[in-house]
Structures are given as structure tokens and as C-alpha cells.
Amino acid sequence: MKYLVLSIMISLLLSFNSCFSKNNNYNDSSAKKENHQINIENANIKKNATLDIPENVMNKTKQSNAIRTVSHPDVMTVLVNKKYFLPKNYVPKDLVYPNVSFIFKEKLEKRKMRKEAAIALKKLFAGAQKDHIYLSGVSGYRSYATQKVLFNRYVKEDGYVNARKYSALPGSSEHQSGLAIDVSSSTGKCAATSCFANTKEAKWLDKNSSNYGFIIRYPKGKEQITGYKYEPWHIRYVGVTTAKQIKKRNLTLEEYLNVYPVSK
Ligand SMILES: [Zn+2]
């Protein structure tokens, strides 16, 4: 039964992906696209049940073609991306300072994470250290207000279209969930930049993060699904069971939840 469900899911994924690439010219009507999206979501609600994904994880959303606001921002597998936004006033109630080193000394907002993720992060850093990999935090929690300031600055520097490629609109940053953190080597070299991909720290994170409940949220080659280029430094806590499934099946969080964003 499990294999049947899995094979249905894979064929559905393939059909959607090919559909996506065929429609790259965006001649398709938006109504048609939206119907397709709803069909996929409906079809997968049943399948997700067999995968033990809690129903409330499925982000019951407003039925609109545009941006949707997640209604369960506190679940560990909450989906936040260019289509699914956190409520503007959402601040996690259990933010703490993880007991790990950061590349800065100050007690800033960006040092915080939600408690469960903070505990897991400490274990991850300790596990890395055993393998002689020394990690530091770069940026964890980020409030809606901070994201707004950042995004506006990037738009000024690079223009709106470019800024959207690497920065999130306020409300759509995973950092607001308190479950995501950018990580670097303890020297801070290549922190949150593409050269981090070639470091031993990045390789360790890719191989081992899932054992601690984290995923590489924006993997290589999945830009059309996540809406973001490869970010080997941005890890996202989803819980150990989910992280291991995502890693084993080489999925993104969008694919795991079967909720695809429109990346443009
Ligand atoms: Zn990040």
C-alpha cells in the first residue's frame, strides 16, 4: 500500500513538473493553473494521511489565486515561502537564545530560535564538533519588521526583481518562523554566500542535518519549486522524522507537503 501511494505520488510529481516546464511561457490561463493546483492539493490530502502528516500541517488557506496566509504558524512543518505567508503579527511565543556560538557577540534578535529548534541546533553543533567541524550561527529569528527593513534595502540596491531572487517579502521569510537559521564555519568565512557550498561545513550539514531534525531548505536544482537559488547555509527545523523522510526521498518541504508555490 505504501509503495502504491509512493508511486502515485512520484507520477503526480513528474506530471506536475513537466506541466510546469511546458508552461514556462506562461501562456496558460491563471484559472487553469489554479484548478490544477487545487486538484493536486486535494489529491494529496488523502495521501498525506497515509504518510502520517498531521492534517493541521496542511496549512488550511484562503482559496485565492494570490498569496495565502498560513493558519497554523506554530506547527513544526509550517510551510513559509513566496506563496504561503506568515501572519504579519506572528511572533513565536517560545523564542529562546540557543546555547551555541554565533559569528557575533551581541544578544541580537537574530540569535533567537524557537525552543525545540534551539535544543536541536545545540545537538547539531555538538555532533559536528565530534567530526571536527566547527559551526557558528549567522542569523536565526527575524521579525516581520526587520524583514521589511532588509527587503526594502535590497530593492534599493538591486531592484525589485533581483531582490526577490535572494530575499523574501515581509511575511514570507522562514526566519520569521523561528525555525530557520543560517549557519557558517566558526570563522564566518563565506557566511551566507555561494562560496559556502564548497566548504567542509556545508558538506557536513548536507549529510548530517536531518539526523538532528533540520533540512537544507533550498537545495540545488530545486529553484523552480522553492523559489530560491541553492542556499547550503540555510537550515530549517522540521523535526527528526520529517527531516529524515525529506532527506531520504530527496524532496523539498513543498514536495513533501505537496503544496507547490508559483515561483514567479
Ligand atoms: Zn536564511
What can you see in these coordinates?
With 264 residues, the protein is α+β, with helices and mostly antiparallel strands. It folds into 2 domains: 1-52; 59-257, Muramoyl-pentapeptide Carboxypeptidase, domain 2 (2-Layer Sandwich). The protein is built from 9 helices and 8 strands. It has helices spanning 2-22, 30-50, 115-130, 144-158, 160-166, 200-208, 223-226, 240-248, 253-257, and strands spanning 68-69, 84-85, 95-96, 113-114, 135-139, 180-185, 214-218, 231-237. Strands 5-6-8-7 form a 4-stranded antiparallel β-sheet. Helix 4 crosses helix 5 (160-166). The longest helix is centred in the first third of the chain and has 21 residues, at 2-22. It starts with a helix and ends in a 7-residue tail after the last helix. Mean pLDDT is 79; it is low at 1-65. Bound molecules: zinc ion (ZN). The site of zinc ion has 4 residues, from strand 6. Pfam families: VanY. It comes from Gottfriedia luciferensis. Residues 111-239 form the D-alanyl-D-alanine carboxypeptidase-like core domain.
**Which runs of at least 5 residues are low in confidence (pLDDT < 50)?**
1-65
Which molecules are bound in this entry?
zinc ion
Number of domains: 2
Share in helix: 40-55%
* Largest sheet strand order: 5-6-8-7
* Order of helix and strand elements from N to C terminus: HHEEEEHEHHEHEHEHH
The total strand number stands at 8
